Amino acid sequence: MAAIRQDAWTSDEDELLAELVLSYIKAGSTQLKAFEEAGVQLKRTPAACGFRWNSFVRKQFREGIEIAKRERKNLHSIYQHSQKNHIISDNDMVKDVLGNEEVSNFFQKLDMTVITLAKTKMENQRLQNEIENLNNIVRENAKKMEAFDYLQSEYQTLLDILNHARERTTSKTVKK
Fold first, then answer.
1. Neighbouring C-beta atoms of residue 72, cutoff 10 Å
2. How many CB atoms sit inside 10 A of residue 171's CB?
3. What angle do helix axes 11-26 and 62-85 make, rounded to 10 degrees?
């Protein structure tokens, strides 16, 4: 039995998990089967993959999931329509209408587009989080600067009082 990993997930692993789940959704298969495949490829348990998908990754790929579901539905309706009109046989559902190579190229481009979109969305989310963190740091620094300015003002007031006291003390001793 292969060793089961318990280390933190990387963004590459998240992307691979997303690619697998989205491709299984498009194909009309179950997410459980995708988790099993991901578990093998990532050397993690299917349960760990399912947990990671449901707790984190799925939120990053909402749009990709919707696209995959629409694609599955479109393919299903093409198939249903072709069955009603006897245009496409069971074995060659799309091949008879379009060339096999055209269909393959189309789906490869579509897969790459979905993957690119998902990666862009994840990067966008990461950058938004980074911007929020930087804004928090700027706000904290502004508060610290305000406190520093206040302390500097108080310090200057204290120095003025001490100088004034010294001048008065010096002038009284000189008069005596």
1. 16
2. 9
3. 20
Write out pLDDT tens, residues 121-146. Answer: 888 888 998 999 999 999 999 999 99
Structure token pair of residue 36 = 């099993």
For the packed helices 11-26 and 31-42, what is the interaxial angle rounded to 10 degrees?
A: 150
How far, in Å, are 24, 122, 158 from residue 36 at the CA level? 11, 23, 71
Is residue 88 classed exposed, middle or buried when 0-12, 13-18 and 19+ CB atoms within 10 A define those classes? middle
Instruction: Look up residue 118 and give its amino acid.
Output: A
In terms of pTM, does the model score above 0.70? no
pLDDT in the model for residue 160: 95
Could you tell me the residue ranges of all domains in the chain?
A: 11-175
Q: Which two tokens stand for residue 148?
A: 């520093």
